[in-house]
Amino acid sequence: MRKKLITIICILALISITLLTSCNKYVDGPKFSLLTKKARLQGNWKIDSYSVNGIDSTNGSYIRSLGDFEWDTTKDGHYTKKGNQPDAGTWKFGEDKDDVYFQSTVLNTGEDAHRILRLASSQLWLQHVESNGELHVLKLKQ
Question: Looking at domain 2-141, which CATH architecture does it have?
Answer without folding.
Answer: Beta Barrel (2.40)
